[in-house]
Design goal:
about 240 residues; three-stranded parallel beta sheet; about 15% strand; five-stranded parallel beta sheet; alpha/beta
Length: about 240
C-alpha cells in the first residue's frame, strides 16, 4: 500500500470518539517526536512552519515552504500532508507537482485570501483542477473559512463544503467551527470532516470532537506554540 493509500484509509470507518489525530510538525525533529509517540500520520501547519523559519504566518516564500515540507517528509516514514495555504498563486498542475516532489501525500487548501473569503464556485472550479492534476495521488483537504472570515452561518459553511466535495475534495475543514454546530456540519457534509483542536483546555478534547462528528483533528500551529512556551520556561531556568 502506498503512503497516500494508507493516509486515505486512515480516514475511513472512524468510530465516534475515535477521530484521526494529526499532530502538526514544524521541522524534522518535531516530526520524529510525533512519530515516536505513535501517531500514524502527520499534517504540517503553515503557521508553525513559518514561525520555525522566522516568518509571520502567510509570509513564507513558496520555495522555503516546500523545502521545509520536504525535510519533514524525509525525516519520518509515515504519510505527511502539507498545509500550503492558498496555493501560493501556483497553477494547479505546478502546485500538485511541487507537493509530490516534496513527498507530501496530501494538502490543506484555504478558501480565503488574506481575510476575505473567495468566491466559493470559483474556488470549487480551482479545486477541481487540482483534483484533475493530482488524480488519486494526493488527499485534498479543503478548508472552509466561514467561521473565521465569514458570517459564521453553518448553512453557508455546509454550502461551501458541498461545492468542494463535488469538486473532488477528500475532506473539508470548517476551521474554528464552534463545538455546538459540529453535529449539524457532520450531518450536512458528505465525507470526512477535519476539526480544529484546542490545546488550552478551553475546548473539547479530540475524543469529544470525534463524538461531535470530527473525522480527524488537527491543531494548526498550536503544538509549535506550546513547545515554544515550554522552551521559554526552560530558558528561564538557565539564569538561576
Amino acid at each position: 500500500m502506498s503512503k497516500v493509500e494508507l493516509f486515505r484509509s486512515l480516514h475511513r470507518r472512524r468510530l465516534p470518539g475515535d477521530p484521526l489525530v494529526l499532530p502538526g510538525p514544524w521541522d524534522a525533529v518535531s516530526a520524529r517526536v510525533f512519530v515516536d509517540a505513535g501517531f500514524p500520520a502527520l499534517a504540517t501547519p503553515s503557521a508553525g512552519v513559518a514561525a520555525s523559519l522566522g516568518y509571520e504566518d502567510g509570509a513564507t516564500p513558496v520555495d522555503e515552504m516546500f523545502a521545509a515540507v520536504a525535510r519533514i517528509v524525509r525525516a519520518v516514514d509515515v504519510p505527511v500532508s502539507a498545509d500550503v495555504e492558498g496555493g501560493y498563486g501556483l497553477a494547479p498542475k505546478e502546485l500538485v507537482e511541487r507537493l509530490l516532489e516534496a513527498g507530501a501525500v496530501g494538502c490543506n487548501l484555504e478558501d480565503s485570501d488574506g481575510d476575505v473569503l473567495k468566491d466559493p464556485r470559483r474556488h470549487a472550479d480551482w479545486l477541481a483542477e487540482v483534483r484533475s492534476a493530482a488524480a488519486d495521488r494526493l488527499f485534498v483537504n479543503a478548508r472552509v473559512d466561514t467561521f473565521v472570515y465569514g458570517d459564521g452561518d453553518p448553512e453557508r459553511a455546509i454550502e461551501r463544503a458541498a461545492l468542494y466535495v463535488a469538486a473532488g475534495a477528500d475532506c473539508v475543514y470548517p476551521i474554528s467551527a464552534p463545538a455546538e454546530v459540529l453535529p449539524l456540519l457532520r450531518s450536512g457534509v458528505q465525507g470526512p470532516v477535519n476539526v480544529f483542536g484546542r490545546l488550552d483546555g478551553k475546548g473539547p478534547s479530540p475524543t469529544e470532537l470525534g463524538e461531535l462528528g470530527a473525522t480527524r483533528v488537527t491543531f494548526g500551529a498550536g503544538l509549535q506554540e506550546w513547545a515554544a512556551l515550554a522552551l521559554g520556561g526552560m530558558a528561564g531556568q538557565l539564569k538561576r
